[in-house]
Structure formats: structure tokens, C-alpha cells
Amino acid sequence: MAAPRxxxxxxxxxxxxxxxxxxxxxxxxxxxxxxxxxxxxxxxPGARLPSERELTEALGVSxxxxxxxxxxxxxxxxxASRRGSGSVTSLPSGAARGTGGRSTAGIxxxxxxxxxxxxxxTCAASPSAVGIGSAVGAATEExxxxxxxxxYHPQGLLELREEIAAYYEAKGLxxxxxxxxxxxxxxAGTALAVRxxxxxxxxxxxxxxxxxxxxxxxxxxGNRIVAAPMTPHGWDLPLLEATIRQTAPRAAWMVVxxxxxxxxxxxxxxxxxxxxxxARSRTTAIIDETLADLALDGRPMPAPFATYDPLGVITIxxxxxxxxxxxxxxxxxxxxxxxxxxxxxxxxxxxxxxxxEQLIATRLIASRDEILPxxxxxxxxxxxxxxxxxxxxxxSWSFELPGGGLSLWCELPAPVxxxxxxxxxxxxxxxxAGSRFSPDGGLERFMRLxxxxxxxxxxxxxxxxxTAYGQLADAVPRRSAAMIA
Length: 485
Prior knowledge:
By secondary structure, this protein is an alpha/beta fold. The chain is 40% helix and 14% strand.
């Protein structure tokens, strides 16, 4: 068994801001803050906390305060003592990660209901963009010229790979068609990329929170996930670097362009720094860019992550978020030295994406500058409508307005996410708890809310969620109800 990851005292202390301001014994306040950090996933289960002496010095408190807090956490099941490993965080029985919806074959499924006026907020995907129909018509006419061939294209149609390569060239990332491998969507690309560079049992680094279906795909490939918790404002670069050093992951799967679910956008300086850390540890970075085209505020986008290590980064792209999820076309941009290896790994998975859908994708990518502005404008309107509704009906919920992507990541005053899912169902709203986005468990204080419905529907959905949230407060003890309110 691998040694637990060690959290430096400075990292833990930075997460403890304001812990001593609450009334009551200091050790209980300290224990409660650490417990909430573990429950929320900001301190991952299985991490080794600083020693009592180290945390005492970092916080400037007495050794007795830290020792008593650690003892209380052990009594409550949030800390375990292991010989040679010190104090290791854990989740009590029954506090493991929830689903917030059934999961079948790695695909999150919402429960079925006959409730009139049902509002489904479990899926961060929009209806098709304008222009799909004409692209389908043109591609159908062209299909006849391909019917005399076997129809198998393991690397993808050349004309599509040329369009994708030109797409990266326009972003300032030199790319040849030979570096592109077309897949049946981003999820298939994720499974293929991980399989091509990691063996069964190898560690794969991800963020926490992260996309649940991709997380499931990595695990089903036999890999072990190592999660690096994000802060409320984005990525913790020192913690990421420490995690890479301590765990030496074979690969890392990350979303740095409008991260799903938080909406975070990693700046250029952090991309360069993180790429250097991956290169030092010989970790293959697999970067999912499926949301990169959905910038909503008109700000310049950072350079693609692969810009900072063109020969060591695999990039995932897809049409599902920017155009339509019904087109199962994605791709990998692969360093030249890895192309043969990825194609070899693919041979036992599938023999290529459907030809008709590749022809449709070719036209859509070529027309992206005409199609996507309207798409972004519609999402901007919906994002702002959802934010207004939350501020009006659920003012105690906090969130940072993302500059793009498809969802808001909301923090609740209390860890009641999974409970709210069940109560909201009775009001006609389907939700997915934050715990579903956690590789290790926790994140019960969070909820992902996509802004993919119409503005009026989003407003009504939030009004119903607020009703459910009020019912939840009425059903819990007085002290917890005060936290919820």
C-alpha cells in the first residue's frame, strides 16, 4: 500500500483562516474546522496531517489544543493513527461519497419521475447549436463518396484531422493532421489516452472536484486516482507540486479551461509552472479542453496547456459541449512520439468513429467562427439569469461567477447536499450533489447547477430549490437549521 500523502503544516494552516473566531473551547473549534475541510474534500481522505508539533507552530497555539483536536477527530472517525504514517484523515462509515443519481456503466443517470414541469439540472449540456441541420444535410450528400470504402478509419478521416489541426494552429499551437486521433467523444478519448500511457494499478492525478464520468472511466481502466483538492479560487499550485512529488503519478487528467464543475480558468503562468512539474516527474498530462470554446466574457484565453510542453501533453477535444452532445465525436492531439502507442491501445477498444458523424464534424469545425458566437451569447444570458435567481432566492449560497463553461459551483452554508437532492426531487427539480464530483468523498457543502435551461426555467428551478432548502431546514435539528439558514 502506498504511503499517505503528507500535507505540509503551511498548507493546512492556510485552510484554517478564521477558525479561532467561533465561541467555545479552542480545541473543539479547531477539530470542527478540520472536520469540515475533510467532509468538503478540501483535505482529502487518506492524507497525512502535520504532526502535533508542526501544526502547533504553524497556528501559534498550544500543543494541548492541537492534541485535543486530533483526539476529538479520532473519536468521531475523521482521523486514524497508523504506525509510521502519523495521523491520516478518513471519512466515518456512512459518510462516503454519494451519487446524487444512479450511475450505470460509468454514466450518471438521473432518477425518472412523472412530475409535471420537471427541471433537470443533472446534465451540463445544451441543446444543439444553430447550424447542425445544414451540416448534417451536406455531410449526408458527401457520404455517398465513402460508401465504396470499408469505412474503418482508426485515426479518423483526413479532412477532419486537417480541420482540427488548423483549429490548434489558429490558437498558436503548431499541429499536424498526423497528431490527431478522432474518437467517439471526449469520454472515449479519456479512456484511450489513460490506457495508452498508464498500466493497471498506476496512479492518475486529478483535481477534486472533478467530472464524475471521466473519474469513473479512469477507475474502470484499473488505475488509482490521486486527487488534489482545489481552493475556492482555483488550483493550489504548491499543493499540486507537492502531490506530484510525493505520489509520482504516471498520468494526470485535468480540466484547466473552465473546469468542470467549478468553472475555473488556469492562468498562463500557472500552466507553465504545472507543465514543468509534470515534465520533472515524467507524468503525462492529459488535458481535457472540451469547454475551451465556451468563453463568455470576451476576455483573451490563455494559451493551450500543450503550448508549455508540446512533446509531453495529450489534449482532449470534443464537439459535445460547444455544438451538441448527440454528435459523438471527439479527438486527441497527441505528441508525435506517442501516436503509434495510442493507436495500438485503441485497436482493442474500437475501430474508429462513424464516418457520417466525422463528415458532420468537419463542417461544424470549419464553420465554428459563424456558429459559436450565438452559442456563447445564449449561454451568457442563461448564466446571468441563474446567478440572479440564486442571489434573490438563495442568498446564503455562495459562488464565483465563471468566465465561461456551463455551470455554477455553489457552496452551501452546511453539508446537506445529498439530503437536498432527495427533497428537491419532490418539488420537481433533479439535482446532483457535490459529493458525486469528489474522487475521495466529501464535498457535501457543494452543488453544481448548470445554466443550460432557458432563463425562465432556471429561475423557476431555483425558486423550487429554495422551497426544498427551506423544507430541509425545517426537518433538521435547531442548530443545523441555523447553519442552513
